[in-house]
């Protein structure tokens, strides 16, 4: 039995009594027929106005035109956050409209799935696609089909900020309520499938990551966007300030800001908002005061009206977002960047950072050989993909932008990790940095050539060696105490620096102190004690105090032979020193014999090219030549 029932003017239905057959309870929405809409004319559908302050930036726009002119093409602009990728895309959009008014230009926010979907809905509404208002419609399919329809005309699709391609290339997972994660309709195809490659359109992508770009385009279709050149940076400053400023100060500030467009726009906005109490010169002076002042100025978010609402105008925050993303994907790469940010920004040696990052998530074992796979290269690749680092021409060192280093240190401090990484950095230097001896000179030149007083002393740089060694000595006395071994080493190093500069009395005083404390703490025949005795003897010899020098040098040589062995480098040095002293006091024959014995051992132990061997050989040859001259002179006198 079935009876009709009404609930008002717009609602009606049936009421069933007894039902003896299956019942279909599925309800159908009544969707009113859409009225036919007049298709709009082609236009630029982007959320940003045209930037009249835009600066050409060389040939980049020409490269974009050339690649995007190939219909069906996909092109990617790749570069560091804040380098101006989106601004280039905006300019390209408006110039495309000027050149080809019949071409559609669509802008898609592609930072995540939800914004991607909203942009597709905006496109559907703009071009008035039939069926778009149906809640069950697949908006991606509708837009895809519209774009593929060559009757709609030519188009350019700009995907902005594709910094994570995962949501595009992976199949969307469906939740229990039938909704896909981040997508408002049921759709199990990857979203990239709805980006058509057809003869009537091209796609331009902006991304910070080259690896992300390679998931969407070919390597040959990537355009690298670098910081501005000097002339372009000055032009941008001039345009944004709206007036002429002192060119020298502006040029210096542009260089200080690494010619980064976002940083330049930030600085210009900051200056303009605070004039006349702020100028380029004042901003530059404040910026150069300290890292904290730099961070304060770079954290300002003023000045940019043509950036995505979710993208920060602060270049510091922009990079912090990228650091967080890298850390989430590959923690070991973030650790490597942290360590690099504490080095000098240029010439960061691979040997210094390769094995010192303690984050081990990148280490895996080959399933067939069970050998440990080196994750360092993958870490480097990720950092290069994000333009955080670059490789120098010699392929063994890295470089970073100064502002990237500053931003990374700020990020570490914000996340409570700066002090930990500073300690890691110091331990790394202690582990990797060699002594300043000859054998280590190449590595010293590779690893911060001015960072160790022993090295600069060996190179004969007296003033620099004294300055560095005195600072080290004072610090060790304060931290370690006066009698600590490292403190004694520093005192001896200061004595050597004094000696190099001819400050004999100061050098002698320090060496005597070190010898006394070393004998008491280490013993009379300890190598460190013997070295200090040899240094004091050399000071005596340089002053012409031959007897005092000889007495000490004989003691050093005999104890070295007994303690270290006859072929030990320190023993050989003591032999050479005594030979020089004997030569100085006129014991020519004894000096030559001892030096001959020393040279033979040095050639065998140290090698022909070692400075000590070369020095001893030169001295020996000179002494022998002098003896021959004496003999010839005596014979000449006898012959009358």
TrEMBL record:
PANTHER family according to UniProt: AAA+ ATPASE DOMAIN-CONTAINING PROTEIN-RELATED, ATP/GTP-BINDING PROTEIN-RELATED
Residues annotated as domain DUF7779: 327-415
InterPro entries cross-referenced by the UniProt entry: DUF7779, NLR-like, P-loop_NTPase, TPR-like_helical_dom_sf
GO molecular function annotations of the record: ADP binding
Gene3D superfamilies registered for this protein in UniProt: P-loop containing nucleotide triphosphate hydrolases, Tetratricopeptide repeat domain
A Pfam family it matches: TPR_10
Recorded superkingdom: Eukaryota
The name this protein goes by in its record: DUF7779 domain-containing protein
Organism: Hyaloscypha hepaticicola
